[in-house]
Design brief:
Elements (H helix, E strand, L loop, with lengths): L1 E2 L2 E2 L14 E8 L2 E6 L2 E7 L5 E6 L5 E6 L5 E5 L4 E4 L21 E7 L2 E6 L2 E4 L6 H6 L4 E6 L4 E5 L4 E5 L2 E6 L10 E7 L2 E6 L2 E5 L5 E6 L9 E7 L2 E6 L3 E4 L5 E5 L7 E7 L2 E6 L3 E6 L2 E4 L7 E7 L2 E6 L3 E3 L1
Antiparallel strand pairs: 1-2, 3-4, 4-5, 5-6, 7-8, 8-9, 10-11, 11-12, 13-14, 14-15, 15-16, 17-18, 18-19, 19-20, 21-22, 22-23, 23-24, 25-26, 26-27, 27-28, 29-30, 30-31
């Protein structure tokens, strides 16, 4: 499908991708990439004639996230079958399952790394993919973790209902909890910023310092009430915030500089800079571009879009039906 603003395409070999809910992807090398979908793991290979072939792995598994380790092993987090590993020498079907030691399968949300060790946030705490007896797994097994981030010294983990915990020197402690508002203890995202780490709950921005200690929180001033942040990107000394009601441009103190919205484009899942413009994906209006302080809906064949990633002069976009190149 082509338009004056860009092109997306699918050749016959990649048609299968459009049938599945795709959530993330990683580039493995110059001609190989992997896509996490809710009906397995897709392997895309660029052939000599530049056509793309698709291989399918673990088609009975719902894959939530994938991570490429420094040794080129590929780790796969699933919602029902725990953590799988595809060895760099095979990258076919050789893998091992880590869910055998649990009574119930793991629900895996996302990978992060610290000091060359890889972890994944799950419904049974933070799991290490390097060791089945890691102390962090034992200490966090009763925590349902949505998100995580780290530096060389400690790990911050966001939970589904218990706020933020810090893991340092094999010691776990809670560093943020709001006893008055339960929604403030559901931590959607933790990301580095100039002050340390910025967490987003379902109620407020939570600022942690460079040591992982709580500094302050700022309740959302979004419209309508109960709107919350989906994704935050720091831009110089300000923030671009994708929310469930539109896109906010906030200053360094989280005051609104500009609120950009459009009817029928309320749930903005992600924004990215690309070719001098800010682009956004919406879960109800498709692809948008922020131009002259307005949201422009770009002609696109899919309205339920989730993530976007600039790569080689294209935007790669994940949706409820597949992955697109634009």
């Amino acid at each position: 499908y082509g338009s004056e603003n860009g092109t997306y395409f699918l050749n016959p070999d990649t048609n299968w991708i459009t049938k599945h809910y795709c959530v993330s992807h990683v580039k493995y090398n110059s001609n190989r990439a992997f896509i996490a979908s809710h009906e397995g793991l897709l392997e895309l290979t660029v052939q000599n004639d530049q056509s793309i072939s698709v291989s399918k792995h673990f088609t009975n598994h719902r894959v939530e996230d994938i991570y490429m380790a420094s040794n080129l092993n590929l780790w796969v987090g699933t919602s029902e079958k725990g953590i799988l590993m595809i060895h760099r020498n095979t990258l076919q079907s050789e893998f091992f399952k880590k869910e055998d030691r649990f009574q119930d399968p793991l629900v895996c949300w996302g990978f992060f790394n610290q000091s060359n060790h890889v972890y994944i946030a799950t419904n049974e705490g933070v799991q290490s993919i390097d060791s089945s007896t890691s102390p962090i797994q034992v200490k966090t097994k009763d925590l349902s973790c949505f998100s995580g981030n780290s530096n060389d010294d400690f790990i911050l983990m966001g939970t589904s209902k218990n706020g933020i915990f810090k893991w340092e020197n094999n010691h776990l402690r809670q560093v943020y909890f709001n006893s008055q508002y339960a929604l403030d203890n559901t931590i959607i995202q933790i990301s580095p910023n100039s002050k340390g780490f910025l967490a987003c709950s379902k109620k407020s921005f939570v600022q942690m310092d460079h040591e992982g200690q709580f500094l302050f929180s700022v309740p959302y001033q979004f419209d309508p009430p109960r709107t919350y942040a989906m994704q935050v990107t720091q831009k110089d000394s300000s923030y671009i915030v994708s929310t469930t009601s539109g896109v906010y441009h906030l200053d360094s103190n989280f005051n609104t500089i500009k609120f950009i919205k459009k009817d029928h484009a309320r749930v903005i899942s992600m924004t990215k800079e690309f070719n001098g413009d800010t682009w956004a994906t919406s879960m109800d209006a498709g692809l948008l571009r922020i131009h002259s302080d307005s949201l422009q809906i770009i002609r696109f064949p899919d309205r339920q879009l989730f993530t976007l990633s600039p790569f080689r002069n294209s935007l790669w976009i994940s949706s409820v039906t597949g992955i697109y190149q634009y």
